[in-house]
Amino acid sequence: MGFLSAEEKGLVNGLWGKVNVDEVGGEALGRLLVVYPWTQRFFQSFGDLSSADAIMSNSKVKAHGKKVLNSFSDGLKNIDDLKGAFAKLSELHCDKLHVDPENFRLLGNVLVCVLAHHFGHDFNPQVQAAFQKVVAGVANALAHKYH
Amino acid sequence: MIIEAEKAIILSMWGKISTQADAIGTQALERLFASYPQTKTYFPHFDLRPGSAHLRTHGAKVAAALGDAVKSIDNIAGALSKLSEMHAYVLRVDPVNFKLLSHCLLVTVASHFPADFTADAHTAWDKFLSIVSCVLTEKYR
């Protein structure tokens, strides 16, 4: 068995096919910045982050969220080699962006909350469990090249 | 620290949540055991299959305790004092697990109350659950 069982891959891909990646990206990044305001430290050039409304409607947040989630989505296509898929991004986050990997775990869990919010009862315990494995795998892959 | 606006959000959402409190508590536990199977080690004596009577009874207990914390939101430590002692001296659940259950409670609330689970509500509940978690582990040592 690879990283996910065949059943788990089915659950993940089944849900992901219905996700509006651009929108969910903006929503997830926005909520990260609202719920865990210390994460704003990486985005000082993003303009107005003074309230939940300001953050959620901020165009730079939306654009960046879109970028992040599209990258996550690409990673899903290589689910059995996440470390390989995210190697370059891992180096970037360590050497250039200086992001504590704990932030990848925080964003992963916020993404899970956003999916639950959007999909309601379809985001059942089994689907959630499969996604928790995915977000943990992506977070570990992004931390893998840190030195 | 929870601010007044956040207390208002929690109180108002609890009004809706309380009508399905048992189901919410139960589903949060199901999610916990599915996503974090290591948490099952605290329940070797339970039937943890979805729908089991054990899960429903325990889910209801968890929901009731949260309800107590909401009703005494200005004195959560007071409201949960006995439960805090029980976790410290009897249950001794490793502190890391409170974050896991808190996350599963958030996910359950998000999936049941889409209209209410705004970014501000998400923040309020995350903060409230972290305070509850702190209270339940504060007597550990």
TrEMBL record, chain B:
Pfam families xref list: Globin (PF00042)
InterPro entries per UniProt: Globin, Globin-like_sf, Globin/Proto, Hemoglobin_a-typ, Hemoglobin_oxygen_transport, Hemoglobin_pi
Keyword field: Heme, Iron, Metal-binding, Oxygen transport, Phosphoprotein, Transport
Keyword hit for Glycoprotein: no
Domain Globin, residue spans: 1-141
Coiled coil: none
Position of the signal peptide: none
Taxonomic superkingdom: Eukaryota
Gene3D superfamilies: Globins
CDD domains: Hb-alpha-like
Function: The zeta chain is an alpha-type chain of mammalian embryonic hemoglobin.
Membership in a protein family: Belongs to the globin family.
Annotated PANTHER family: HEMOGLOBIN FAMILY MEMBER, HEMOGLOBIN SUBUNIT ZETA
Subunit note: Heterotetramer of two alpha chains and two beta chains.
Protein name in the entry: Hemoglobin subunit alpha
Gene coding for it: HBZ
